Amino acid sequence: MKKLKKQLKRIYLNEKENEKDFIIERKEKQYKFPKLILIMRSELYRGMFLSVTNDKSNKVTDNSKLSNKSFQILEYWIYSNQIKDGIKITQQMIDEIKIGIDYFQLNQTNPNLFDLLIKKFKNQNQNSKKKDCLIF
């Protein structure tokens, strides 16, 4: 399992761009993914790629209405089962990502993305309150 996570992160970090054979097109940017990862992580794409059709396209337009930040959180989680360090989670992002999880029909394995977001959001708020209570 560790080896698979390492390989997925390597792909995410663009070390093997040629392995990314599918594009999710958004207004601002194109996101490249290996079909295999999308098949593993998303019921939506599993159905799309494994259905018997003559459609051989390698691109789809994302109509999820997610902000770029929320989409990038989903993208990183799809590859790593983690939330990227340094991301400040807001309630709006949590709401958007909950919709995105449903939209993309993401397989919620452990750790569950929504649970990770809530935990990180609570930790941020607790740390923020602690800083506010400090007297200088």
**Which sheet architecture does the biggest sheet show?**
3 strands, mixed
Distance between the termini: 47 Å
Radius of gyration equals 17 Å
Q: Per the principal axes of the C-alpha atoms, what is the gross shape?
A: globular
Query: What pattern of helices and strands is seen along the backbone?
Result: HEEHHEHHH
Going by helix content, strand content and strand pairing, the class is mainly alpha
Q: What portion of the residues fall into strands of 2 or more residues?
A: 5-15%
Tally of extended strands?
3
Query: How many H/I helices?
Result: 6
Helix fraction bin = 40-55%
Calculate the mean pLDDT score and round it: 80
* Unreliable stretches: none
Provide the spatial order of strands within the biggest beta sheet.
2-1-3
Domain BTB: 20-83
Pfam families: BTB
Protein name: Kelch repeat and btb domain-containing protein
Draw up the topology in text:
Elements: H1 2-12, E1 22-25, E2 30-33, H2 35-41, H3 43-50, E3 59-61, H4 68-80, H5 91-103, H6 113-133
InterPro entries: BTB/POZ_dom (IPR000210), SKP1/BTB/POZ_sf (IPR011333)
Pfam family, one: BTB
Domain BTB: 20-83
